[in-house]
Amino acid sequence: MSSKWTMSEISLFLKDLHEMHSLKLREFLLGDSHPLQPGDLIQAALYNHYFNCRLWREEDLARRTNVSDAQIVANKRAIDRFNQARNDATETLDGYLLRMLPPLNVQARLNSETPGSMVDRLSIMSLKIHHMELETNRIDGSASLRQECREKLSRLREQQYDLSFCLQSLLTDCLEGSARFRQYRQFKMYNDPRYGLYKGTELLT
After folding, report:
1. Which positions ≥6 away from 96 have C-beta within 8 Å?
2. Alpha-carbon distance 142 to 136, whole Å?
3. Is the CB of residue 28 less than 8 Å from the CB of residue 53?
4. How confident is the model at residue 4 (pLDDT cuts 50, 70, 90)?
5. pLDDT single digits (tens) 52-65
């Protein structure tokens, strides 16, 4: 890719993104590999996808009812870590995206959702599609449940297409100078011991 995007390169990025989300999903869910620290745009998207997959898996484990409380606590701690890493990767994505685009027109409409957060949502959408597709093939489920899941799968794929189209439209508008976005920060507080969140309602009195 060139230092600044063209419209054709935006389309290529979205194609690569979709393929990466699909190809890496099972591998990341199983925790068989860990991507490199982000060094470019695709690596940042890969990093975000990895932590979304790990987060999904950990949330599944946290719903178990046949394990000790200590194991669930460990799952909850991991969820906080993975969610922090996922949000950090999303912010990194926006940084790379800003560098790939020409200087944004400060007079253009401001989009409240950043492209990085849309990439994050596409990652989560691929997880939903993967798991819903598994449900459509469950031999121990009823025929009516499988049909319900097929209908939901169709709707999810429609939503995935719409979101990808909206992302492409936003990036194209930014390229043409009719839209802009800011690199927002989430400022997650729960992983920083300096904050007194654990005190709960004590801070309200």
Report:
1. 38, 40, 41, 44
2. 10
3. yes
4. confident
5. 999 999 999 999 99
Three-class SS of the chain = CCCCCCHHHHHHHHHHHHHHHHHHHHHHHCCCCCCCCCCCHHHHHHHHHHHHHHHHHHHHHHCCCCCCHHHHHHHHHHHHHHHHHHHHHHHHHHHHHHHHCCCCCCCCEECCCCHHHHHHHHHHHHHHHHHHHHHHCCCCCCHHHHHHHHHHHHHHHHHHHHHHHHHHHHHHHHHHCCEECCCCCCCCCCCCCCCCHHHHHHHHC
**CB 174 within 8 Å of CB 181:** yes
What is d(CA 74, CA 15) in angstroms, rounded to the nearest whole number? 37
Q: How confident is the model at residue 1 (pLDDT cuts 50, 70, 90)?
A: very low
Reply yes or no on whether the pLDDT at 196 is more than 70. no
Name the least confident of 7-11, 134-138, 173-177, 190-194. Answer: 190-194
pTM of this prediction?
A: 0.87
Q: Would you say 82 and 54 are in contact if contact means Cβ atoms under 8 Å apart?
A: yes
